[in-house]
Amino acid sequence: MTLAFLNLTWPTFADGLALGGIYALMAVGIGLVFGVLRLVNFAYGQLLMAGAYALAYGATWNLPTWESILLCFGVVLVLSLLMEVLVFRPLRLHSPATMLVATFAVAFLLQNIALLKFGALPRSAGSLALLNAPWDIFGAEIRKIAVVSVATAAGCLVILQMLLKLTPLGLHMRAASMDFRTARLLGVRANRVITGAVILSGLLAAVSAVMLSVQDINVTSTFGLQDTIVVLAGVVLGGLNRLIPATLGGFAIGFATGILGGVLPSNQVQYLQSFVFAAVIVVLLVRPNGLFTRAAGAVERV
Amino acid sequence: MNQLRRLPELLGPALLILATAWLGLEVSSYLEAYFLDTLVKVAIVVALYLFIGNSGVLSFGQISFVALGAWTAGLLTMPESQKRLEMPGLWHFLLTTNVGNAASLALAAVVGGIAALVVGLPLMRLSGLAAGIATFSVLEITNNVLTFDGKIGPGVNNFSSVPATTGIWQAAVACLICIAVAYVYQRTRFGRMLRATREDPAAAAAAGISINRQRLLAFTLSGALAGFAGGLYVHLQPLASGGLYLDLTFITLAMLVVGGSGSLLGAVVGALALNGIFSFFSAATNTVVVFGWHLKVPSGTAEIVLGVLMAVVLILRPSGITGGRELFLPRRRRPVADLEKARATT
Amino acid sequence: MTALAVEKLSVRYGAVEAVRELSLEVKPGRIVGLIGPNGAGKSSTLHAIMGAAPITGGDVRLDGRSLVGRRPEDIARRGVALVPEGRRIFGELTVDENLRLGLAARRTRANGNGLARAYELFPVLRDFRSRHAGALSGGQQQQLAIARALAAEPGVLLLDEPSLGLAPKIVDVVFEALMQIRDSGLAVLLVEQRAQRTVALADESHVLANGQLRITLGPKDAGDTDRLVSAYLA
To answer: Which of B133, B152, B156, B253 should be substituted to probe chain A, the one whose Cβ sees the most A Cβ atoms within 10 Å?
Structure first.
């Protein structure tokens, strides 16, 4: 059973959805921190990298799968909070350009620490690899991880939305991302909101790390790097100022990447990156304020 | 009088380059490679500075032009027999054309400049994060194409057998050319107009300055210098597309920001200081002797030191080592500076 | 006893001295007006009280305890609420969410009927509670901003030009509400451009110029236009 146009098959479509879902989670993670700190965290990929190494070590130590995942969450959360305290907080009042370059530095630093510590050879995070086996769904062979990724992403987004809509902390975070100064004058505690956003962002990074490590079980120091670059592009495409446009942007670019990767003829698939980023440039030129935002949004200065 | 006061703005960086070149000639040939590498990095950082420093717009794309320059100069100077051997898929024109060292550098600059012009034409109307992501996209596409296209270069392999013509003097002279270009540019009307748009885009636009056109000019010049530096680079060591990508983008941006992206002096000081430290720790992987101490560090230490150093400088001194200032002959008093200081504290 | 006391307060932005040695106090159940031309330092005074402007000298005390050096959110949590200039409501949040945001400053979980009280004071808000605040009219937005400030049941209310850009009829509603707020025992510090109305409403009004206190007027002076004008020109 195939989708009639191109050579798009249902499994490719499902893989596209899955990648879109994971990228959407990463986009939310980046967007949450941007909302409260006006900081584009280039080092987000290194959080995923750290989480993936945790999974790989869990597998090496023969930990049960759920313990590996727990370890992954722990490592990513601790690293997120360290980043916040050591780098983001001291830089809070600097220009966005300075902050972006600083997260560049953090990314470079963490990547090289990983290279020094764990070496250049890939480590295998294979404990969840059996999720790559297919399920037979109405005659189409859909990989289990595709289904799991889509379901997890949807679940996480729903929970997050409820958190933002229904809890006081969520309300404070939304208000802070719209107008931090006024929110503080009303009694919203800056540090608590920022820490909250960083923790949520870290949790999403950990979830993304688990999902991505199934797709790509070879963990190296550049794990998640390329994904983060693509997601950042997607987030800016969607519109960084608002969470939902940013999420849609992340999903769209993940979905497009997944589908293109499946339908491009084999002699062109190596140029996938070029196709994706050429599309990014075109969209930016047409809608510099974001694809999914209404008219001109607030302008950030970089 | 005013012209005389301005002189150190050019002479300061130039003397630093000459001093570096002289030191490079004095040290053993084994260490000379580090000085050569440093001089090439200075050229790249000055190219970055010309656009980023003067316009205030962050670009992640300039290393693309370095790569294009490297590809141009590399292909045009490699012996045809080697090209037939190593790059059988190369276009006929590239396969059979060969030029000399100086001509290859000039052509590298031309290709870098044209590429920047073509890319800049649509992109220069973007600013902020959109500009950052768009220039990043340019880097991604350039890297992707150069990595996989065997018709225009070595593809996934590296450039071997390019004549290693970049010696200390060639590198130093090339650096001085880059610095002179950047200096002359920032002293012209165009440079001043672009700086005005950096300080206050609205006021500059109201004064009749076309922001796009000024940015495009600087972007093109910057692309030409970057291509030129790429030419130097490929004449120095066997490059591969992976070496002209994220890490080089990061390291050169770090140099610019740590030095102080607001001034030419900052670009040069940042490149010299960071590459000096980087080279020291790279050399220390094979043991260096400092005042009788034998220091040996695991490989990768240099990158880590660089990352930490950069984060620390950004936190403690976000406008860089030079604070974005040029070298001036001191006047007796500078009341304006006091006012600026006062303003900075609010 | 005094709720809010400002003692020899000085505020400086770089080279510009916005407020110079200003002293005033606001007691519970009283409205104190702060009037004067643009750039006189009125807003700077409010921001300094809230910890959002650089204080270079003097003191701000709430019930005897100094607020200087505290963060804006901590000052809000001590019971000083600000209705900022230009209202600063969150247009993309609903009216109800805006009001619940005001609860951020409440000191204990116990005082939860601030919301109900806020709705009571401005019944029109209840009709629009699930609507986006950005869809409200200017007057309704101003009422929302005041209600939001009251949600956490503060002891001191600071208002920065609440009548700015409002139709005269709406200004009446706002000023009427201020009287009710005063009568409920709050200390109110009102910064205004509408000098005559403010002087008439407030228990006392200070005229500020160039960051310094020029003269203090009582409600009786409201009709005395000459005195008002000369106070401005002094």
So the answer is: B133
User: Could you tell me the domains of chain C?
Assistant: 4-88+156-233 (3.40.50.300)
Instruction: Give the residue-averaged pLDDT of A22-43.
Output: 94
The answer to whether the CB atoms of A302 and B138 lie below 8 A apart is no
CA distance C144 to C121: 10
Q: What is the ipTM metric for this complex?
A: 0.92
- A232 to chain B, any CB pair closer than 8 A? The answer is yes
Calculate the CA dihedral of residues B115, B116, B117, B119 and round it to 10 degrees: 80
Q: Which of A174, A186, A190 sits opposite C102 (nearest CB)?
A: A186
Q: Which amino acid is at A246?
A: A
A37 interaction partners in chain B (CB closer than 8 Å): none
The residue in chain A having the minimum alpha-carbon distance to the alpha carbon of residue B128 is A302
Contact A106 B123 (CB under 8 A): no
Query: Closest approach of chain C CAs to the CA of B343, in angstroms?
Result: 5
CB contact under 8 A, A233 and B308: no
Q: Considering the domain boundaries, does residue A293 fall inside one?
A: no
- Look at residue A132 in the predicted model and tell me its pLDDT: 78
Residue pLDDT, tens place only, B263-275: 999 999 999 999 9
Beta bridge partners of C35: C192, C207
Whether the CB of C72 is below 8 Å from some CB of chain B: the reply is no
Which amino acid type is present at position A62?
N
Which pairs from B181-189 meet CB under 8 Å and 24+ separation? B181/B50, B181/B221, B181/B225, B182/B46, B182/B49, B182/B50, B182/B225, B182/B264, B182/B267, B183/B9, B183/B10, B183/B13, B183/B264, B185/B50, B185/B54, B185/B218, B185/B221, B186/B50, B186/B54, B186/B264, B187/B6
- Record: contact C90-A190, CB cut-off 8 A: no
Give residue A117's domain range. 11-286
Using alpha carbons, select from B152, B163, B147, B155 the residue that is nearest to residue B82. B163
A89 in any annotated domain: yes
Q: What is the CA radius of gyration of chain A?
A: 19
- In angstroms, the CA A286 to CA C209 distance is 50
> Would you say residue B343 lies in a domain?
no
Q: Which residue of A has its CA nearest to B302?
A: A112
Give me the CATH number covering residue A148: 1.10.3470.10
Q: What is the pLDDT of residues A192-223, one digit of tens each?
A: 999 999 999 999 999 999 999 998 889 999 99
Beta pairing, strands C204-209 & C187-192: unpaired
- What is the model's pTM? 0.89
Domain assignment of residue B65, yes or no: yes
Number of domains within chain B: 1
CB contact under 8 A, A113 and B304: yes
Judged by CB atoms closer than 8 Å, whether chains meet at A168 and C102 is answered as no
Q: Select from A208, A116, A233 the least CA-distant residue to A153.
A: A208
Question: Is A38 among the domain residues?
Answer: yes
Nearest Cα residue in chain A from C77: A187
At C116, the pLDDT band (50, 70, 90 cuts) reads: confident
**Domain tally for chain A?**
1
A36 touches chain B (CB under 8 A): no
Q: Is residue B276 part of a domain?
A: no
Distance from CA of A10 to the nearest CA of B (A): 28
